[in-house]
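<instruction>
Derive structure tokens from the sequence
<data>
Labelled lines for chain and fold:
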Amino acid sequence: SGSYDLGVQTVRGESITKLSEQIIRSYDDGGSTSYIKVRAIVPAKRTSFGLAHNLVAAALKRYGEGEAFFAADPDGVVAVYRVADMTVRGRARCCYRVLTPTASRLVAEWMPHYRTDEYLEDDVAKLAWDAELATAGDKTGTIVHLICGRILPIYDLLPETMAKVVTATLDDGERLIGRVLAPEEIEKFLAKLDITFERSMSDLLDEIKSGKVILIQRGVKIKKSYVDGVLKIEVVPPRHMVYDWTTVVRNAGGTMERIDYQARLFLNDADPVSSLEALRDKITDVAYAA
């Protein structure tokens, strides 16, 4: 087994392995900067409704109405609340946390948009929150993107977000230390170095299973869903595109199922990676929902 440290915190996983290593800049004295990708099987993030409620209540007390709430999201229930503002490279940023029962994301400089009619009362939010926790697994696979070696020569190319530096001990005993980049940051960073980012559909599947919602071309989303307690990978096109995408998903080995009178599209349950590979030409402009 391996471990990696988040600041003073150590997260231990069943397995942490290096997937790839690429030297992205070399220096005359023999030094280098590398991009290393590792896969970690770690305990799934699980946030109780009680903790989420306390965070929302504290933000409401500090910042006022509209700065914290529970809301109904197409991907499940979310808690949105303002957190302490940050100064990053001399710029003040107003930040919000978007929290779900199994994931968390920090959003800087803009308020995640939800209509007031999407807000949920506490009792309704608790039912939805607890139901999602009940179907979530205990372990999750996650991809960690590390920039290792010399950082200062490429510092100005790195994202202007709060730096997270971790150390990692791999299953084979190798130790790494590097700056973590989020999945949505790594492609843009490598492009600044004129390096093409090779997207792995297996990695993309891990990201989806860990709770990330992938936004691809023309407003189509790919996310994880639970149907009768069974994990599925769902493709969610805009309503007016469902007919066209039904054909696309079926050609990729997926299925269309009618659930509560709605047509819903799912990748191949047995081999979702092959379905993602078949959709590769559609997955051209990946972004990540908050």
